[in-house]
């Protein structure tokens, strides 16, 4: 596979990414129904079909245990390599002592197809084994209560705790029952050589179809085809026949199909740039809340890295749509310009630039944004989470400035972000196919290396859906139907998976004894009622709600579960929500907008990617027009149908240059002007024009961002505000200590910095100049999910925050980065406090020096 884009974020990525120096064999691999673990003697095989509820009831797991080992007699390989892969299979390779073993394993594949050289085929039993069938070339054996069959062109010889055969190829199968032996023998030598997913979208029927195909070759005889175990989200959405055979898995029941392919079909319930404005909404309130964001000292709220910048882009672009709906065009134009210019800055790289750019890494075939966060650089984590926000914001900009979003301009870069996280174009050689999205499992995986005993994991299913929403909206806005249809495939497939595996909407997946109605994290081996950074119930539930966008209405497919979810959260929380009240109340509004509106106040600080105006707009819209009605579809993918008291409101977005007539499956039609969203229903009708304003980009010019550096003379006395101020020179502190630094220049840095800590620097002198920027040299080895704010205040450690930036793990406590931030103007001589704020108790940052700029 040399020269191929390297897959990461797969269920099997620990085979290609050695995370631990002492383990060249990878971690547990959860293919479902089988599980695996590579070792020196070959491939450990298991069937985890009994769930354990652990961690005081907050997690369930079906951990891998080796029932048997597939290998070659005498094999003792020093490590494992990867010799091939396809959309949901992988072929690990062992080489050592003149022997080789090549196996093919995969999602839903109840076989291990093996090829051996240098010795006899060998299957070693890891527990007491009962042989219940032994005919030429076929051995039936029970181990740990699990039924297996061994198939070989030659006879098996059983000796002690192993079986051997003089064969160059052989198969080991996990049987659902002993009476399935004849069926499995039929396909034992039909080896799977490739697997592929293909999809299509029929706009007339609003149906997304996906076909999952396995290519096979007959190693003996003429039989081709194979057996495939379908996940619950698959067999619920296919009309293709399955057998009566069943498996147990951490995703619930899997059903066995005989055949080389199957097709799933799902209705696409649509996405929107924004909900329609409620006729009952207080537009003065909306205007004031938009102005509060626009006129903040830092509308970006200290965002510097890809993740927090993405959330800020989403917050501001959402406000632009609301400003447009209430006729606040000046505010709309300011917001669109802010978003467009910040996107332009990030999508433009200049020599020597330290931040706000993306760089392509040709070793790992990936595009990384710097500053990175949450391991998006060193571990290739979360690219779909981070980049989805950029793509979604770009879709809003594209409505107002199509030239900026063209492929020849920044649209080409936006599509590179899409392809890095989930490349939908098989001809694209810079990125692996669907890096984050597991086509067969129906979900994304967040970890680049998958180096965990529980396999890979995915936390925020809702941010994954945000990525899919962004792909649909940007594809539709730019006329790229290939991108749009890929987004629809991601959206519909995940909708089916999320309802089952995160929300257990049918109560058929989570095991008995796991007394939670939702999980915060899905693992290969199970699920966890928790997050990476906190045990706060509001965030455990909320992480699979945020961000609330025009693509969040998929939750309307399980409205009863929404109410159960909120009730469980409040019971665990000891009362109604306070931390992420905006997000949680918006989520509640999808099922019960009247309760949501009565519950929502607006005095609490919104979640970083949201705003008071957006929360109020969303809740009042659903309260006026109703909740999602998925029984009706439309002839365009950018639509929604809302229903209240049995009456429907029809909404559709038309990015085209001429008026479009949208047909709905219940016979209704809606005329939508060019570049607009329109709606009609009993509670009113309206239009949200997406064009106009913002000084559109000329197709022949490039927007650039210029940074100006001003040199000043040192002010008399005190600390020079415009020179580097060493952090260890503080005049007072709380919770701060010093240590030797390995940063350039040596000396010391301050450390132990966490929530509530501060350091005082007296007499910082700005002379006759005005400080408007703040820069600090920081490093962090904080655990995943731990981050915080470095803030500037004057007068006291509780004074007004004048400027701040967010920081998470930079790669280590001595891995230094220079981070800039804007701040409110400072003049004269000031007592400056560096304060440190975090939602987690753990230390999150070290500081070497800081300075100010004009």
Molecular structure report:
Helices cover 21% and strands 32% of the residues. It is built from 14 helices and 49 strands. An 8-stranded antiparallel β-sheet has the order 7-8-9-10-17-14-13-12. Belongs to the glycosyl hydrolase 81 family.
Notable traits:
about 850 residues; Glycosyltransferase; Beta-galactosidase, Chain A, domain 5; about 30% strand; Jelly Rolls; 3 domains; alpha+beta; 8-stranded antiparallel sheet
Question: Looking across the biggest beta sheet, what order are the strands in?
Answer: 7-8-9-10-17-14-13-12
CATH third-tier fold name of the largest domain: Glycosyltransferase
Give the termini separation. 52 Å
Number of helices: 14
In angstroms, what is the radius of gyration?
29 Å
Q: What's the domain count? A: 3
How much helicity do the residues have?
A: 10-25%
Q: pLDDT below 50 for ≥5 consecutive residues: which ranges?
A: 699-717
CATH class of the largest domain: Mainly Alpha
Largest sheet: 8 strands, antiparallel
Find the count of extended strands (DSSP E, 2+ residues): 49
CATH architecture of the largest domain: Alpha/alpha barrel
Integer average pLDDT? 94
Rough outline: globular
What share of the residues does DSSP label as strand, in percent? 25-35%
Specify the structural class: alpha+beta
